[in-house]
Amino acid sequence: MSTPQPRRAVYFVSDSTGITAETLGNALLSNFPGLTFLRHTIPFVDSVGGARDVVRGIADAHAAGLDPILFTTTKDASVSDALAAAPATRIDLLQGHLTELENCLATTATEQLGRFHTVGDPEQYFRRMRAVEYAIEHDDGQSMRALDIADVIIVAPSRCGKTPTTMYLALQYRLLVANYPLTDDDDPGDGLPRDVARYASRCFGLTTTPLRLSQVRHERRPSSRYSSLAQCTRELRRAEILYRATGIPYLNSSTKSVEEMSAVILQTLKLRP
Amino acid sequence: MSTPQPRRAVYFVSDSTGITAETLGNALLSNFPGLTFLRHTIPFVDSVGGARDVVRGIADAHAAGLDPILFTTTKDASVSDALAAAPATRIDLLQGHLTELENCLATTATEQLGRFHTVGDPEQYFRRMRAVEYAIEHDDGQSMRALDIADVIIVAPSRCGKTPTTMYLALQYRLLVANYPLTDDDDPGDGLPRDVARYASRCFGLTTTPLRLSQVRHERRPSSRYSSLAQCTRELRRAEILYRATGIPYLNSSTKSVEEMSAVILQTLKLRP
């Protein structure tokens, strides 16, 4: 019997939303898959009082034997100093790099408190809202209204992952993304469905494994022909024949996250802003 | 007349999706708001050949006087070595911290190539798909079907930002989020709309400035009563009276990004997973 791995408490502390701290902190922790981490994200720590509350919480974890690790992206010096009192391994995700950048840009950073994930540009906000609304309107072939201005049209059989990928592209990159279902009525010999055929250059296909598709469809309609392995196998095979015949790029969603698929779609269709 | 600021080419290079490199790199660059950066994200650089292509591109930028900066999150040693040849200020976003973590965890990182934004857990993928589909189904009060299992119900007058915030919470945190419109028919004296009143403890309100709302509504219906400043002022005032009267928390979306609002909603409703 192997020794049980100790659990470590991990804190992502930020003066803003905590997203950067969480993202980079987790990216670093993912390199240690055998260990157990108890994660806590504490955003909006922009005062010494707030920092002291955090330190108290960390001290409790330390007393409980959880050997805390503290990832920070706080910029205010007094807040950072207050956090230094925490009984934890402190990993400041910004400071070293910020100094490197200051040297290379021959200027000093502004004193703004980590405003990256804050509103900044109203124009960006509008574009994002517009992209999300466009995605909802043009989800699952429900509307062709503004299909001509789509940046990407994702096609695939039902439940291959069109919708989450669409929403991610809209939110993260503010692209106008429509998605369109391939059904049993679509014969690969006829090419892409008529509504999207003229936009083939913007199409991107998804496929997956028959087993995964069957599992996902089973959640929605258990014990149906729709979710049967035979039907899934058939629809996926026809979809892949279609993609190859029409030359549209495609990906297997069973082995990729929404983030990965989006990155590939951007690169393939040369859509990076 | 001030000296024009030089433009700097910035590269975010990763062996995976590039999201972490982009996010942290941009968070660092946001501290230098007066400078102009030409950004390039290059994901999936996981071979020496790929790294050399990147180096060539950077050399071109250098020759054009763009004084490149290179942010990396690549883990493979041979890829990192190949990138070291680039004529750029190199800022490795992971390496220093990875060593700190290795020391603190008394173990070495696995050799997996930066797999954080990759598929990992199929269960997470299902939860995310389910959350996005739930959000679309329960957008704008269109369906009450599964409102009882909502983690959050965002309420606000039309165009205050309910939908992008909903989608972000679904994608990023896999929460089940519904949203419900407040209309001119809703009298604050009657409390929350009947469909959501029983779920008041999960409600979160949004407001904005009358000018911002008028601008956003104008895009959809120009020169209408709906987009008039008077109507917007009225609806927002009634919404805020309602929030205060029912005690539901609320935020002004005109000063916050979707990320920020989501972080506040999570904290306020104690929804962090």
TrEMBL record, chains A, B:
Q: Which reaction does it catalyse?
A: [pyruvate, water dikinase] + ADP = [pyruvate, water dikinase]-phosphate + AMP + H(+); [pyruvate, water dikinase]-phosphate + phosphate + H(+) = [pyruvate, water dikinase] + diphosphate
Q: Does the keyword Ubl conjugation apply?
A: no
Q: Which UniProt keywords apply?
A: Kinase, Nucleotide-binding, Pyruvate, Serine/threonine-protein kinase, Transferase
The entry assigns this protein to a family as follows:
Belongs to the pyruvate, phosphate/water dikinase regulatory protein family. PSRP subfamily.
Q: Which NCBIfam families match?
A: PRK05339.1
Its function, per the record, reads: Bifunctional serine/threonine kinase and phosphorylase involved in the regulation of the phosphoenolpyruvate synthase (PEPS) by catalyzing its phosphorylation/dephosphorylation.
Q: What is this protein called?
A: Putative phosphoenolpyruvate synthase regulatory protein
Species for this entry: Leifsonia virtsii
